[in-house]
Amino acid sequence: MTRPSADFSLILAASIHDMKNSLGVLLSSLEDLRDEQQASGSSSANLNILQYQAERIHNDLVRLLGSYRLQQNMLSAHTEEHFVRDLLDDTIARYVSIIDGQNISCQNIAQYISGYFDHQLIASVLDNSVSNAVRYAKHEICLNAVYCEDYLVISVHDDGPGFTESMLRQEMDHSIDFGGGNTHLGLYFANAIAALHNAGGRKGFIKLLNGGQFGGGVFEIWLP
């Protein structure tokens, strides 16, 4: 009897989905543990590190699953009108424990504006950007949103050392690099998500630059 052949990419995607869900349970348990520590007046630097690294792995799995869906043409942007400040507040809230644990200030300075975008997809892009900002920031992070040239521009600023020249070049070609220490999968995924948003013949895109509010790195996603 011939065994039915299995599509390895489908098996891998299903496994990633299961791992992502399990890690979500772990993150929830870590948050409960943090609440218990705060209630008892204690804190742990190791817990901050554990929660931050678990969050990074969770974001990596989200991007991997999203990249698979992109390749299979199973991912599309379902755009609806959203208040941008609410999106940014929700993003900060997901990282507030980690941010507070590292004595970093994170502010939402966005204008009171709305925009049309896929809330879940853009939230996943911002999660990755804020995670990177937390990694490199010294003391301050801020999230901003403005309209520029008929695009909604959402940005994440930090007071870290800024992006290297190689990172700025990587942003230009949006490729994945398996030869270096960083594959830049986050940038590839962010640009693909931005490009799913289109209006009037224009597509979304991302930008990396140095300067911004604090003179450090700035990640921008431009949505038409």
UniProtKB/TrEMBL annotation:
Any Pfam family: HATPase_c
Q: Which GO terms describe its molecular function?
A: phosphoprotein phosphatase activity; phosphorelay sensor kinase activity
| Histidine kinase domain: residues covered | 14-224
Keyword Transferase, does the record have it? yes
From which source organism is this entry?
A: Marinobacter psychrophilus
Top-level EC class, please?
Answer: transferase
Q: Name one GO biological process term.
A: cellular response to phosphate starvation
Q: Which Gene3D superfamilies match?
A: Histidine kinase-like ATPase, C-terminal domain
SMART domains reported for this sequence: HATPase_c
- What are the protein's UniProt keywords? Kinase, Phosphoprotein, Transferase, Two-component regulatory system
Q: What cellular-component terms does GO give this entry?
A: plasma membrane
- KW Phosphoprotein (keyword) present: yes
Cite the EC number: 2.7.13.3
- State the protein's name: histidine kinase
Signal peptide location: none
Catalysed reaction(s)? Answer: ATP + protein L-histidine = ADP + protein N-phospho-L-histidine
